Amino acid sequence: MEALSLEELRAADKRTLHFTPYGLGGAMAPEVALDFQQHVVAQYTLAADVAEGTRQRFEQLRRVHAYGLLCYDLFTMVSDAALLVIEQALRDRFIDIHNGAVVVQDGDGNEHRISATDYADFYEQYRKLRGRKIQMGPTRTWTPFKGMLHDLYTWARRERLLRGQRNRGREEAIKALRNMVAHPNGFHLTTPVDAAHTLGSLAEIINQLWGHQTPGGRLYPAPIDRRTVAVGWNAEGGKITICQAENLPTAEKSDEWEYVLVQAVFSPGEAEDPTLFEFDSLVENTTYPCDLLWGPGKQSQALVWLETNQPAADTCDHLDRIFLIRHHDRLLHLPMRPEIAAGLPATEHAGTWYTIRADDPRDAFSHARQLTQAAPQHTSTGECGQCSAATIKRGTHAQALAAAAHEGANVVPIRPPDVRTPGRLPRSIALQP
């Protein structure tokens, strides 16, 4: 190792200077680069009630990240250490949730109460008792528990501290990356961008464990804003347009245009639902929840309705949504919200119904299609190991609704007007015999 002088240690690492707010480019001045790197990680903050030990480790990483200006290798060390902090956060939250007292079961089925000041204390006592199971989830089911990272993730999922069906796959990837760091095989170098990204993910995971969603988050976002949106189409010309309600007066005024007003995610430059062109009032086609407010009708009628009703903006949670899907006469119908399925006439109750939890209706439909085809490895109960969905119930219309209600979904029957934009999808597909 070549010894460095104090002056050399204080010098900015030239590699860091090329990471600018606009991507890789010409080298910035060291003072500007330092300000930029600190600004990037300053946006990641933890909720006030996060355990102190976890908080200190996180703040330590944010502080060291700034020293990457002087030593580029520190970005790799920050990124790797952040993956290890996730386990500490899970351990701290485990003790926090149980208030320091955990009821466990040994191999003979005997129950024991372990009082512990921290996770290391708990695990040592658990190991000596030859513990095998702990209670998890709303039903307090006895579940195998070995105390390792995988078991802690399983526990957090069962306790619904971690959310989102697509996040299950991301959590598996994060576990794999953590294991690579804990059991290294070779050398790797991480960029400041990757290090900041990992810190951001760590902040989201920690906050979610303590029950706080992240506004605009990538993993565990807070409910997203919705506003009144006008969707219009010209049946003859085959054109479709979307605009916020306040811009409707300047939209197409021809009587050939039809409009509907919906409550939807549509804030250009911030968050936009890319599937609003496929809106269907009876089935779920859109990426985010979308509600029919009025229509269809002419522009002048829509403006009168807006003036009279003045609908307010709201928010919607798009993770872990509950969908009902019908399979009947070799037709698989598109996902429905439970309240709309509850409002179906009795003539449309026949067949096998699936109650599925997913973040997106396409995920739910794909999973149901695999189940109807008896696809191997797609589990028919609980979380699927092959896709981003979970089967809550398979049964009759009434059983599917009861399962949805048990999960907290709204099952008060509604029957909205049958409204579909020209870009809509077929409401069912024929399955192969």
Task: Considering the chains and any ligands shown, give keywords for the structure.
globular; alpha+beta; 433 residues; 5-stranded antiparallel β-sheet; 6-stranded antiparallel β-sheet
What structural class do the secondary elements suggest? alpha+beta
Tally of DSSP β-strands: 19
The helix content is 25-40%
What value does the Rg take, in angstroms? 26 Å
Low-confidence stretches: none
Q: What does this molecule look like?
A:
The chain is α+β, with helices and mostly antiparallel strands and 433 residues long. Helices cover 36% and strands 22% of the residues. The protein is built from 13 helices and 19 strands. Strands 17-18-16-14-15-19 form a 6-stranded antiparallel sheet. Strands 7, 8, 9, 12 and 13 form a 5-stranded antiparallel sheet that branches. Strands 4-3-5-6 form a 4-stranded antiparallel sheet. The radius of gyration is 26 Å and the shape is globular. 33% of the residues are buried. The model has no long low-confidence stretch (mean pLDDT 93).
Q: What's the helix and strand layout?
A:
Elements lengths: L5 H5 L3 H4 L1 E2 L2 E2 L5 H13 L9 H15 L6 H25 L3 E6 L4 E5 L3 H10 L2 E6 L4 E4 L4 H10 L7 H17 L9 H18 L14 E11 L4 E6 L12 E8 L1 E2 L3 E2 L18 E7 L1 H11 L4 E3 L4 E8 L2 E3 L4 H5 L9 E7 L2 H12 L9 E2 L5 E7 L1 H10 L21 E3 L3
Antiparallel strand pairs: 1-2, 3-4, 3-5, 5-6, 7-8, 7-9, 7-13, 9-12, 10-11, 14-15, 14-16, 15-19, 16-18, 17-18
